[in-house]
Write a structure and sequence with these properties.
Elements lengths: L4 H15 L9 H8 L3 H13 L3 E3 L7 E3 L8 H8 L9 H5 L6 H15 L4 H17 L5 H14 L1 E6 L4 H4 L4 E3 L1 H9 L5 E5 L2 H10 L4 E3 L15 H10 L4 E5 L4 H5 L3 E3 L4 H8 L3 E5 L2 H8 L5 E4 L5 H4 L3 H10 L4 E4 L5 H6 L2 E2 L2 H10 L4 E5 L2 H10 L4 E3 L15 H10 L8 H17 L1
Parallel strand pairs: 3-4, 3-5, 5-6, 7-8, 7-9, 9-10, 11-12, 11-13, 13-14
Antiparallel strand pairs: 1-2
Helix pairs in contact: 1-3, 1-4, 1-7, 8-21, 10-11, 11-22, 19-20
Length: about 450
């Protein structure tokens, strides 16, 4: 498929019509032509095509102006492209044309279907909201896009939904949160809320935990591919093999695991309660998954022998002691606060090793004015906002979780509009995984 400039000018002109006002006020082609720096005659030809295709209609005569013929959410990008492009066929290579059984052909065909599905899933309204999101940032230097945020708020009400946002999310997502916090606190809170739909802005295992604790609610994860690389480092199958190797050991899993791994564990833990959870088991041997650094941190506080799985969070693993020491040299008044997922030598060097919630509380209560923080930058954005008179420094190589940053405002909008992506879990896994979560909640 080839796209020409015709499509580009048509789309931009249609977006101009939307920008002209909510009440679908007619806009003269001359006005659009001037804004788009294109000839009016050329636009006239394009609008004849759009009019015949039922996308726009002329109001008060052709000279009067144009309005949309349908609502922007009813006009699909695919419909516009089919009108403006001469062909939407797969572009075949010469070889495909000449050789009937070309081995690449099925893949090009599949690729073409994926593209067509994609353009048929996007509406003019989506495009408008996306451009507003980008434009607002550019023009005003703000982090939120008012139009998109208004749409999200409207849908939230309509769907009876609540927005739970993890501390590591983008600032603009944090700003629209109903509740902001760490994964477990958010999931526990959701059980006390009256809303029927939970939109979890975080990564998959967090949305799963929310579903485990609120099985009758609809839990949505706005980006399907937002996963946690650390959680994905161990599967239920691998954990079963480990259990066979150490049949007498009890299994503690970090909350950053899939529901299937939780289902194979005796109990769950968080970075804040790991030592307490292990002590509660009174076991000689503990299999601890998946984070080797949290395992080391826990091992130093308990008498049990810890058998770790060698997983790690790449964001915290790459916070180096040298980076911390460099910040310390630049800011000698600051205290060093790190997350337990950091390497042991960094944790040993820090003044405090705290969960994200622990960091939020310390920043608020402490009389100290400067902090070197060893965790994902999203949390630091939050504590800076909440404590404007204090100073917070990150390691020079900013710890940033790309999975946590995947969710954008437009994804939250799509999630609420289309009720996607719903978290579904097998009943047996749900019941077992919930048990290990609830055991922890009881003792912690
Ligand atoms: S910050 Fe680390 S633990 Fe958290 S989602 Fe990203 S990779 Fe997973």
């Amino acid at each position: 498929m080839k796209l020409s400039t015709r499509s580009r000018y048509c789309l931009r002109a249609l977006l101009e019509i939307i920008c002209n006002g909510e009440d679908n006020k007619p806009i003269a082609l001359i006005k659009i032509a001037m804004r788009q720096n294109v000839s009016e005659k050329y636009l006239e030809q394009l609008f004849i095509i759009l009019r015949k295709g039922g996308i726009v209609k002329a109001s008060r005569g052709v000279k009067g102006g144009y309005i949309l013929n349908k609502r922007p959410e009813e006009i699909y990008l695919g419909d516009i492209l089919r009108l403006t492009e001469l062909s939407m066929e797969t572009v075949s290579c010469k070889n495909c044309d000449e050789v009937d059984d070309c081995m690449c052909r099925p893949y090009w065909d599949d690729f073409s279907h994926v593209i067509l599905d994609y353009v048929d899933s996007i509406t003019l309204k989506d495009m408008y909201l996306r451009s507003v999101e980008a434009g607002d940032k550019k023009v005003e230097g703000e982090t939120t896009a008012p139009v998109l945020v208004d749409e999200i708020m409207r849908l939230k009400k309509e769907r009876n939904a609540v927005l739970l946002v993890h501390n590591y999310q983008r600032t603009e997502i944090q700003e629209i949160a109903d509740y902001l916090g760490d994964s477990l606190d958010l999931s526990k809170r959701a059980t006390q809320l009256k809303e029927e739909v939970i939109v979890f802005c975080g990564v998959r295992f967090m949305a799963e935990s929310s579903k485990l604790l609120s099985p009758h609610k609809t839990v949505l994860l706005p980006r399907l591919e937002a996963g946690c690389p650390m959680a994905d480092m161990i599967t239920a199958e691998e954990l079963r093999e480990m259990k066979e190797e150490y049949p007498k050991a009890k299994v503690v899993c970090y909350v950053n695991t899939s529901a299937a791994v939780k289902a194979e564990s005796d109990i769950c833990c968080t970075s804040a309660n790991v030592a307490k959870v292990i002590e509660s088991l009174k076991a000689k041997q503990i299999i601890f998954v998946p984070d080797k650094n949290l395992a080391d941190f826990a091992g130093k506080q308990t008498k049990s022998e810890i058998i770790p799985w060698y997983g790690y969070c790449y964001v915290h693993e790459f916070i180096r002691l040298d980076d911390i020491k460099e910040q310390e040299r630049l800011h000698p008044q600051a205290i060093i606060v790190v997350h337990p997922e950091v390497r042991p030598e960094v944790a040993d060097y820090a003044d405090y090793v705290l969960s994200t919630n622990g960091m939020v509380k310390l920043a608020r209560k402490s009389s100290v004015q400067e902090f070197i923080i060893g965790t994902e930058e999203g949390l630091v954005e939050r504590i800076r906002r909440e404590n404007p008179s204090k100073k917070f420094y990150l390691p020079k190589r900013k710890p940033l979780c790309s999975n946590m940053k995947r969710t954008r405002l437009i994804d939250v909008f799509h999630s609420l509009r289309d009720m996607k992506y719903t978290i579904e879990l097998e009943e047996e896994i749900m019941n077992k995984a919930r048990e290990s979560l609830e055991k922890m909640i009881k003792i912690a």
